[in-house]
Design brief:
Layout (H helix, E strand, L loop, with lengths): L1 E4 L4 E4 L4 H9 L8 H12 L6 E3 L2 H12 L10
Parallel strand pairs: 1-3
Antiparallel strand pairs: 1-2
Helix pairs in contact: 1-2
Amino acid sequence: MLKITDQTRTFTVPRNETISLELKLNVTRVGHAWKGIGDHLFYFANKPDTPDLLTVTPEQYDFLVLLHSKPSWESCREL
């Protein structure tokens, strides 16, 4: 499980769902600017030695929670 935290709140994403979250992030307006987050999600899914903790800002945290709640990457295009 990947733990995503803003140092106040935390949610977890199973390893097999991190690529889906990365794809959702990639199609949003902030996908390029937050490339480091996308890279961490990708590497966590594909490289076992990637740290299981991702620390983000409160804004990023809220956005990732929103993305995680969406059913597919197609539903994230307008975000």
